[in-house]
Amino acid sequence: MLRFAIIWGSQTVSKLGSALTSFALGLWVYGLTSSVTDFALISVLTILPGVLVAPIVGVLVDRWDLRNAMRLGDCGAGLVTLVYAILISFDQLAPWHVYVGTALASVSGALQRTSYTALTPALVPAKHLGRANGLVQASDAAVPLIAPPLAGFLMSATSLGTVVLIDFISCLAAITTLSLIRSLPTGSGASSDASTSALQQALEGWNYLKARRGLLGLLAFSVTTNCSLSAMQVLLPPLVLDIANPAVLGGLLSTGGLGLLMGSVVMTAWGGPKNRIHGVLGVGVGLGTVMVLAGLFPTLRMLGYCTFMAGFCIPIMDASSQAIWQGQVPAALRGRVFAMRGMIAWSVQPLAYLAAGVIADHLDGVSFSIPALFGPLEQLDARSRGIALCFIAAGLLALIAAVRGYTARHVREVEEMPPGPPFTGAVSPPSR
């Protein structure tokens, strides 16, 4: 556990450095172009390239030494940062450099994350996987809280070059830490048939999922809740701005971040329920409930409470789910299976963003009969009332997914299944 904690600390510092650069470059591009589209493009390029290359990344992680795979991911991010620093020093940085660099950093990040996830169960005893994943969730929660104000301060007090230099130093620290720690697992060293293409090997991760209905059902639950949370994320700002000002919106978003951090701390200290599926599906019921309440009673107080509770639920669900996956997937397939899982789970996010906006706009102007019990909902204008109804629908979707998981025995008892069979070079699809 000590080796994991040291690696976690160095990776958290590196993650903070990357977040500082990402936020600062976004501000720089927007200040230069005054284009919201250009600003949004950076967010898209932060996610999309990593999702697209995930299957191939999974193959590489299963083939390579895990330490080297993580170092290569960190080195890729560090090289991008070094190029930024050189361009800034010669006053040659342009927006297109940022777009290309963000896409390359996304690919490097996919390699680093997948190998990090595969390395964790090799370093941490099974009984402590919940706590270890809680630590990862804590860094994921803390970095978005710290990075924006710190980057804004550094941009005002120093310069973009200083922010980039800090990021580069944090990358070097992560790489050095990985190099100095002794006795790290070398990885599965999965052998590959020369006649088998990388795409075929990537599909072995999908074939493994198809053969294990419990994990496939757990993945379906994750996809559904990601859709619900993405809808909430994109619809909360316009709903709040209809009844309050931007300062209040900022406070509500910070409340959600605080919930994420608190949930991560609780998960790290607690480790989650003994039967981890309750940490996924049971907490999923709570998540769906608070989203429905936010739509039915859209007052600032209720929205603040629900935003905090949603944030609190996420790290417990994610850490519990991660621990189940890490215990159910054999080491030789972890890279491919985790990469396939991440690609499927996160590819729905931009689709959910788009669908939520389109549905909310379509409901604008539609008349609804609101029971007197839901007075706050009745007091909203037509557009915000439609957004609130989308909240209710998203919450019901998460609730249905959690209840369906409990009623499906293969999902409810997924932890009771023995771990997957030893790797033999290929995973055959299930018999028909």
UniProtKB/TrEMBL annotation:
<dbReference type="InterPro" id="IPR036259">
    <property type="entry name" value="MFS_trans_sf"/>
</dbReference>
<dbReference type="Pfam" id="PF07690">
    <property type="entry name" value="MFS_1"/>
</dbReference>
<feature type="transmembrane region" description="Helical">
    <location>
        <begin position="248"/>
        <end position="270"/>
    </location>
</feature>
<keyword id="KW-0812">Transmembrane</keyword>
<feature type="transmembrane region" description="Helical">
    <location>
        <begin position="12"/>
        <end position="33"/>
    </location>
</feature>
<keyword id="KW-1003">Cell membrane</keyword>
<dbReference type="GO" id="GO:0005886">
    <property type="term" value="C:plasma membrane"/>
</dbReference>
<feature type="transmembrane region" description="Helical">
    <location>
        <begin position="153"/>
        <end position="175"/>
    </location>
</feature>
<protein>
    <submittedName>
        <fullName>Major facilitator family transporter</fullName>
    </submittedName>
</protein>
<feature type="transmembrane region" description="Helical">
    <location>
        <begin position="337"/>
        <end position="360"/>
    </location>
</feature>
<feature type="transmembrane region" description="Helical">
    <location>
        <begin position="277"/>
        <end position="296"/>
    </location>
</feature>
<keyword id="KW-0472">Membrane</keyword>
<feature type="transmembrane region" description="Helical">
    <location>
        <begin position="39"/>
        <end position="60"/>
    </location>
</feature>
<feature type="transmembrane region" description="Helical">
    <location>
        <begin position="215"/>
        <end position="236"/>
    </location>
</feature>
<dbReference type="GO" id="GO:0022857">
    <property type="term" value="F:transmembrane transporter activity"/>
</dbReference>
<dbReference type="InterPro" id="IPR011701">
    <property type="entry name" value="MFS"/>
</dbReference>
<feature type="transmembrane region" description="Helical">
    <location>
        <begin position="386"/>
        <end position="407"/>
    </location>
</feature>
<feature type="transmembrane region" description="Helical">
    <location>
        <begin position="302"/>
        <end position="325"/>
    </location>
</feature>
<feature type="transmembrane region" description="Helical">
    <location>
        <begin position="72"/>
        <end position="90"/>
    </location>
</feature>
<keyword id="KW-1133">Transmembrane helix</keyword>
